[in-house]
Amino acid sequence: MKLANRIYGIIGIKSTMANWNADFSGRPKSTGNGDIFASDKALKYPMKKMWESYGKNILFVKSLKQGKSKDGNDKLVPNTLGERYGLLFGDIKKAKSTKEVLSNLFNCIDVKNFGATFPEDGYNLSITGAVQIGQGFNKFGDINIEVQNILSPFADSRAKEKNENGEDASQSTLGTKIVTDEAHYFYGFCINPLAYNDYKEILGDDFGYNEDDYAEFKKAARFCATYFNSNSKFGCENEFAMFIETAVDAYLPDLSSYMDFICKDKNRSVNLEKIEKMIESSDVKKVEIYYNPLSLDVETKFDKFDIYSGNKI
Description:
Blueprint lengths: L6 E12 L18 E2 L1 H14 L10 E5 L5 E5 L2 H9 L8 H9 L2 H6 E6 L2 E6 L2 E3 L2 E3 L6 E11 L3 H4 L9 E20 L8 H4 L7 H17 L8 E11 L13 E5 L2 E5 L1 H6 L5 E8 L5 E3 L4 E3 L7
Parallel strand pairs: 13-15, 14-16
Antiparallel strand pairs: 1-10, 1-11, 2-8, 3-4, 5-6, 7-10, 8-10, 9-10, 11-14, 12-13
Helix pairs in contact: 1-7
């Protein structure tokens, strides 16, 4: 069944001795004035990997093929966008119409949620996603960046080239791992199911962002960081998620700017009083708040649920 109402909310990610989103220097991303934040891509990626593990079609994710280096040796190289499409749906050159390509794109759950830019083989398609996610700003003030030196068990294989004397390496190499001791990132998001109305003429009146699509997004919003245990992301977990279902013509700003994150000694809590006042005059159909009660307190009058079990608190 298609959704008609807008949905607004917040997704909270806790990072303990981990690096949720690094810049190219390896340090946590920050603004010019030093505020630490994480991009929407840092959240979307584990969502995509989680969906992919369930067998869902994912278009915008890195996949590899066997290629050749300049000297003719075999090496792994990333697929192009067209090749990635071909892995899922067959050679795009054999597509018979724009409708077929568009339908295939929307059969990818990442495209159905986040949209796509697809400039391949003459199909210059640009899809604005029904789900829009903002930047996730860290709301924990007493944050420290820790740099860990890591000793490799191996010598540098290129030491002879780098050495002025042309000597082999006499010591093993050093690396670094950069983490934050504690950070709490909060992303605002909005779902506008009417974003796909323009495609009804091509794909039929039944096409649209539906309840199943929303259920998949909602599940990923509760579990994706906890699911994705890479080396740098181990220690990152979903700790908070809020979903506010409104009428079609109800409009709300980025809600993450209006929540208060409170730290007192070792206790962490979220106060939603400002948001409660904001939506009093809006046509709100349903509010659900999920969080980890073992690490976070939430002060609100709305229904609260355990983020992992789904049980009401």
